[in-house]
Design brief:
- By secondary structure, this protein is α+β, with helices and mostly antiparallel strands.
- It has 2 domains: 9-205, Fructose-1,6-Bisphosphatase, Chain A, domain 1, CATH 3.30.540; 216-359, D-Maltodextrin-Binding Protein, domain 2 (3-Layer(aba) Sandwich), CATH 3.40.190.
- Helix content is 29%, strand content 20%.
- It has helices spanning 9-17, 26-47, 74-87, 146-151, 229-240, 258-268, 289-302, 333-344, 354-359, and strands spanning 93-98, 116-124, 135-143, 169-175, 179-184, 190-195, 200-205, 216-219, 251-253, 271-274, 287-288, 306-308, 325-326, 328-331.
- It has a 7-stranded mixed beta sheet, sandwiched between helices. It has a 5-stranded mixed beta sheet with strand order 9-8-10-14-12, with helices on both faces. The chain has a two-stranded antiparallel sheet with strand order 11-13.
- Strand 6 (190-195) and strand 7 form a beta hairpin.
- 46% of the residues are buried.
- The structure holds 1,6-di-O-phosphono-beta-D-fructofuranose (FBP) and magnesium ion (MG) (2 copies).
- Mg(2+) 2 binds at residues 121, 124, 292.
- Substrate binds at residues 124-127, 220.
- Pfam families: FBPase, FBPase_C.
- Residues 344-353 have a biased composition (Basic and acidic residues).
């Protein structure tokens, strides 16, 4: 049933822009281009096996892996191309970077170059595609360095090394039972639902807030033997429930699709952890700073939640490489702060502490 009384995304963006009379409209146009890419990906995902884009990407015969050493799905590659196609022509961008491209993407010479950088994970949770679980696209908009804009030169990796606090906008689209767009342009978080009749994102969830407290946590427990002591302590205390120091029972979730976990947390609170661990010494965490941790971090903070490495606020981290991985904890503020506190209190988190040793369900 069509609900005509709701604002469209376009209306919402125009109203935001009215607050800045000098704004050119480039920023809004860029966001709309990004969301058009998301709509196209939503359609492709919805067709599933019928669309011919399932399975692994195999240009020759041996398949293909991205710069992170992960098998690329056909839909990863297609989604990446949709992002490029929908945004490269507009003159709003100085360059782009994506999970699926080793190096920064240069705006082709036939198009003008603009003021912004776009960074994205075109399809997050893509290992879930074959099992029909919610996936999504995550994006972050940064200002291009002044000198890049003035010279019009090609972008280099270092142009993207800006802390999350400088993001102009961040968001994700989630392709679940309904397609939604969750967006911040630096003034709270708003949720839009795709009206399949109109093909428009309609404002359905204004001013989303993450409750400060929760009884729900999300972590991949199969990694427990690699966790650091503060994370083990936190999870053990949650598992101890009513009988432990927390004095309340906790529920656990793991979808293995960060976009879906972030969405659940924005809707009803919770804490998500993919912490730094010892699984692979070359990878200080699983998730990527520029196009996973930073945009989701900005959304959380704008919704009154918190995002952290466990040791410092995510928004303060200065990136040092395009595909940098990082430990990520986000969600309800009081829980994230507790986890940060445990990282600052190593003495209490040592194995052998009575609480830790006796109640650990995830001991090595
Ligand atoms: O396989 P695991 O350890 O459950 O990891 C799941 C995590 O990997 C991711 O799928 C990584 O994202 P990509 O699918 O974009 O590579 C996250 O969405 C998710 O949180
Ligand atoms: Mg991802
Ligand atoms: Mg991805």
């Amino acid at each position: 049933m069509l609900q005509t009384n709701r604002s469209t995304l376009t209306q919402f963006l125009i109203e935001e822009r009215r607050r800045f009379p000098q704004a050119s409209g480039d920023f809004n146009a860029l966001i709309l281009d990004v969301t058009l890419a998301c709509k196209a990906i939503a359609r492709t995902v919805a067709y599933g096996e019928l669309g011919g884009a399932m399975g692994n990407y195999a240009p020759e015969v041996g398949g293909s892996v991205n710069v992170q050493g992960e098998t690329q799905k056909k839909l990863d590659v297609l989604s990446n191309e949709l992002f490029l196609q929908r945004t490269e022509w507009s003159g709003h961008l100085a360059g782009m970077a994506s999970e699926e491209m080793d190096l920064p993407y240069q705006i082709p010479v036939q198009y003008p170059r603009g003021h912004y950088l776009l960074v994205f994970d075109p399809l997050d949770g893509s290992s879930n595609i074959d099992v029909n679980v919610s996936v999504g696209s995550i994006f972050s908009v940064l200002r291009a360095p002044k000198e890049v804009v003035e010279s019009g030169r090609d972008v280099v990796e270092a142009d993207f090394f800006q802390p999350g606090a400088t993001q102009m906008a961040a968001g994700y689209a989630i392709y679940g039972p309904t397609t939604m767009l969750i967006l911040t342009v630096g003034r709270g978080v708003n949720g839009f639902t795709l009206d399949p009749n109109l093909g428009e994102f309609m404002l359905t969830h204004p001013d989303m807030k993450v409750p400060p407290d929760t009884q729900e946590f999300a972590i991949n427990a199969s990694n427990s033997r690699f966790w650091e002591a503060p994370v083990k302590r936190y999870v053990d205390e949650c598992l101890a429930g009513k009988t432990g120091v927390r004095g309340k029972d906790f529920n656990m979730r793991w979808i293995a699709s960060m976009v879906a976990e972030a969405h659940r947390i924005l809707m009803r609170g919770g804490v998500f952890m993919y912490p730094r661990d010892t699984k692979d010494p070359l990878k200080p965490g699983r998730l990527r700073l520029l196009y996973e941790a930073n945009p989701v971090g900005m959304l959380m903070e704008q919704a009154g939640g918190r995002a952290s490495t466990g040791r410092e606020p995510m928004m303060d981290v200065v990136p040092t490489s395009l595909h940098q991985r990082i430990g990520l904890v986000f969600g309800s503020k009081n829980e994230v702060e507790r986890i940060e506190r445990y990282h600052r209190e190593p003495a209490q988190a040592k194995e052998g502490e009575p609480l830790f040793a006796s109640r650990s369900l995830f001991r090595d």
